[in-house]
């Protein structure tokens, strides 16, 4: 499960931000995860508490904001993609070679105590 390593990386980044802010602890964090990012939100939620043990994020609430996949259809412009259909326009079924959003994995917000 690579989500445990993702959780550890998020904790490391959050700890760096916390240090820049003069210390303390994190009570909540929000992560943006694109549906095309290959990160399973439920697995990240499950891995986070154990990964945060012994860090300034222990006991912090993890919120995940899902980001839909949006591709650029040559005929229809930006269209929301369906994972089951792949990188194809849901209107005309044409390939959408450019993914505009949906592969994000970003630490969006930290709530500090």
What is the fold's blueprint, element by element?
Elements: H1 3-20, E1 26-34, H2 41-52, E2 61-67, E3 70-73, E4 77-80, E5 98-101, E6 105-112
Parallel strand pairs: 1-2
Antiparallel strand pairs: 1-6, 3-4, 3-5
Helix pairs in contact: 1-2
Descriptors:
single chain; 113 residues; alpha+beta; hypothetical protein PF0899 fold; 3-stranded mixed sheet; 3-stranded antiparallel sheet; 6 strands; 27% helix; 32% strand
Given helix and strand content, the structural type is: alpha+beta
CATH C-level name: Alpha Beta
Strand order of the largest sheet: 2-1-6
User: CATH architecture, please?
Assistant: 2-Layer Sandwich
Low-confidence stretches: none
In total, the number of domains comes to: 1
Oligomerization state: single chain
Characterise the protein shown here:
Helices cover 27% and strands 32% of the residues. The chain is α+β, with helices and mostly antiparallel strands and 113 residues long. The protein has one domain (3-112): hypothetical protein PF0899 fold (2-Layer Sandwich), CATH 3.30.2320. Strand 3 (70-73) and strand 4 form a beta hairpin. The longest helix has 18 residues, at 3-20. It has 2 helices and 6 strands, in the order αβαβββββ.
């Amino acid at each position: 499960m690579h989500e445990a390593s993702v959780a550890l990386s998020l904790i490391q980044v959050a700890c760096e931000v916390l240090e820049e802010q003069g210390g303390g602890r994190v009570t909540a964090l929000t992560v943006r995860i694109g549906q095309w990012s290959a990160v399973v939100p439920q697995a990240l939620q499950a891995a986070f508490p154990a990964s945060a043990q012994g860090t300034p994020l222990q006991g912090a609430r993890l919120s995940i904001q899902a980001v839909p996949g949006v591709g650029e259809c040559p005929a229809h412009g930006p269209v929301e993609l369906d994972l089951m259909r792949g990188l194809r326009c849901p209107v005309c079924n044409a390939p959408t070679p450019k993914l505009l959003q949906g592969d994000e994995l970003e630490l969006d917000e930290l709530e500090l105590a």
